[in-house]
Amino acid sequence: MRLSALPLLAAIWTISGAASAATPISLDQAMAHPDWIGTPVENAWWSWDSKQVFYKQKRTGSQLRDTFQALPGAARKISDTELANLDSERVVYNRERNRAILLRNGDLFERDLKTGALTQVTRGSTGLAAPQYSADGRAIQFRVGHEWLSWNRADHLVSPVAAARATKDPAAAPDEDALRDLQLRLISTLKRQKDDRDAGRARAEEERRADPTRAPAPIYLGDKVVIEGSALSPDGHYLIVVTAPKSADKGRIGKLPRYVTESGYEEFDDQRPRVGRNMPPEHTVKLVDLSTRQVRDLSFDVLPGVANDPLAAMRAERKLPALKGNRVVRVDDDGETIQWNGNGTQVAVLLRAVDNKDRWIATVDLKDAKFKPVHRLTDPAWVNSGSNEFGWLNDNSTLWYLSEESGYSHLYTLGADGKARALTQGKWEATRIDWSADGANAYMLCNPKAPGTYEVCTVNTRDGKLREVTALEGVEQYALSPDQRKLLVHYSSSYMPAQLATVPVSGGAAVKLTDTRSAEFKARSWIEPQIVAVPSTHGAGPIYGKLYRPATLEAGKQYPIVMFVHGAGYLQNVSKRYPVYFREQMFHNLLVEKGYIVLDMDYRASKGYGRDWRTAIYRQMGYPELEDYVDGVNWMAANHQGDLKNVGVYGGSYGGFMTFMALMREPELFKSGAALRPVTDWTTYNHEYTANILNTPDLDPEAYRKSSPIEYADKLKGNLLISHGMVDDNVFYQDSVRMAQRLIELKKDHWELASYPLERHAFVQPESWYDQYRRIYQLFERTLK
Asked: 65 CB contacts (<8 Å, ≥6 apart)?
């Protein structure tokens, strides 16, 4: 249940004692290398017998990692001599769950979960991926490049199963050529040599087929395609192969200059193409019968709505040619979007339209080589790729999947009878699904209590009853133990990076295993951010935020307001977890010490709040979000003595974009802002992200004009800091340079551009972090007081 805004405001405002006696923080300390906080727990995994937990941790002051056994109170460092017998966080269980495949250091191992015996399957492999058990459980199948191999437990032999090749079949008849035909007709010696060669090749293939010790011949798919993925049926009978045209247009590639280099000379890297200039090519899905070597294409014609263009009206308005035939369809990642059941009798494929307004799950009629659509998710804005998990239960007939069709990401099953059943429901999100071996219980990350409170939940497939297994509030990820009796949980909180705990699946108290924070960091007291719900004046519902302010406000005083804007992609920052923006959180402590109040909001488009919240920005980036920030500023003034005459805003990436929109579209309200690594013109950003929200520039130029800050540069009145890494390969430095030139031409005052020659999108060096935030702090001190 989600709390309404008004009761929440009364209930949530309780300042802890620690907040009233926060330890002062210097800017230099806040921006120092995060090792001073304590290096967090990284990868973690169960031992094969479910009795021990191991994890990786970075060394302080080094990029090297060590392995530890997690023990309450004190961890034990694993010696190098013990590493060979360790398990891994990457585990695939067999149907009976008495054996497990481990992928460790790029090689495969098999663990007997009854005896603990460990057997190495490969050594020194390169590019090994997608391990799985064969249908009979006697072999391990895996892929190296585009070749599928099998390791048999009986003889420990690794043998090829299927190898797809994007080349011509050397035995195939050559393309028609009149000169070749003439030559063979006239020169008998050439004709005899060719016939002998063809006969030898045919005989070699006959011998190969008859001899079980020989590897199968490659599957030749022609030289006009590239292979982008494949998935082998566990019974070894079929191979699904995904291809794309070899001549697909990659779009124009620019050059990213680097001026400060080891060589002493300027160096240049290739950039990614811009939106609309690298349209993803259509995929072809091929079904290969490995016994007959027959290759058949699976037609997309049966997908409901595939021939309907949701952008037809827009295309007509722009006088662009109408689409002919089906929309472009793709299979994005074979490791996740092609799923065979355990015995290889059924396969499901997740397909999406390249306009990302439709997503289909289809099974395959293996006999007739046809797709059979079983689920369609359609959205007039864009389909959420974060809800694409799906697979088969151990009964080999029940398909499960996530779907946002209710408005929130929830779990569904589809039985052999073709009837879909919702296992979860409500105004919350289910993600990261795992199943018990018997299929009776599904586990997931969930947030039913509040959007920013994450636990592990389980739902019983029989009665649909949902139960919270954990009570940690900031769960980040989890793993079932091999015996399925416990969960290994990564959890965190506002000032505690990810740590480990174990929890019985039946529920109960968590056993906390680690606390890797430094003594110096733990000794400090911090301002605990208060999660608040700001009423929306635009009918959006409560806008959740993190509020930083003194425990007691000075009577009669008005406090300058700083609004922080998190980045996007698809992100939620208002939660009980340790924030991605931990430096910014310490900076907010400093700002409060210096007399500011700070609000960090999950504006519309943030993760965790459902489909309508996510798609509110469709064709109008910077509009609903700015409405939310204006509501936030007014709420700060009405409830926390905020000064409407002194309002600042800052953020990075999408937050930098929003800083521009705030200063340029609400210039009377926002007095100062710092735009860090900002997008200034969405036509220069990448295709995968931007086209979802704004379509493409040729099709929807008005959406790009409406959403790009450079179009509003003439409205700037306040004080602006632009900060950008010069080797940013995500948001190009060119974005800020173009904005700077626009401001020069407009003769704007009170702005500056700070450039960082060695930094990419995410800054790394403490000196750069310090310089950037020194400028932000000085900007606010100079203009908001």
From this structure: 42, 56, 57, 58, 59
With CA atoms as reference, report the closest residue to 657 among 693, 688, 611: 693
Name the pairing type of β-strands 672-676 and 99-104: unpaired
Q: How far apart are CA 652 and CA 656, in angstroms?
A: 4
pLDDT for 248: 66
To which H or E segment does residue 457 belong? Answer: strand 455-460
**Structure-token pair, residue 95:** 């149907």
Q: Are strands 559-565 and 543-548 parallel, antiparallel or unpaired?
A: unpaired
Q: Which long-range contacts (CB under 8 A, 24 or more apart) does 149-153 make?
A: 150/236, 151/108, 151/121, 151/122, 153/110, 153/119
- Residue 746 half-sphere exposure toward CB, CA atoms < 13 A: 18
pLDDT digits (tens, 9 = 90+) for 186-224: 889 988 998 888 888 778 777 777 777 777 889 999 999
* Element of type H or E holding 18: helix 17-20
Which residues neighbour 18 within 8 Å (Cβ) at sequence distance 6 or greater? 525, 526, 528
Locate 183 and state its tokens.
């030559």
Q: How many residues does the chain have?
A: 785
How would you list the strands of the sheet with 642-652, edge to edge?
530-534, 543-548, 597-601, 559-565, 642-652, 672-676, 719-725, 751-756
8 Å CB contact between 239 and 290: yes
Distance CA 700, CA 311 (A): 10
Beta-carbon contacts of residue 63 (< 8 Å; ≥ 6 apart): none
Q: What is the pTM of this model?
A: 0.92
Q: Which residues does 489 contact at the CB level (< 8 Å), separation at least 6?
A: 456, 470, 472, 475, 477, 478, 500, 501, 502, 503, 510
Instruction: Kindly report, residue by residue over 32-70, the tens digit of the pLDDT.
Output: 999 999 999 999 999 999 999 999 999 999 999 999 999
- Alpha-helix runs per DSSP H in 23-78: 27-30
**Band (676; pLDDT cuts 50, 70, 90):** very high
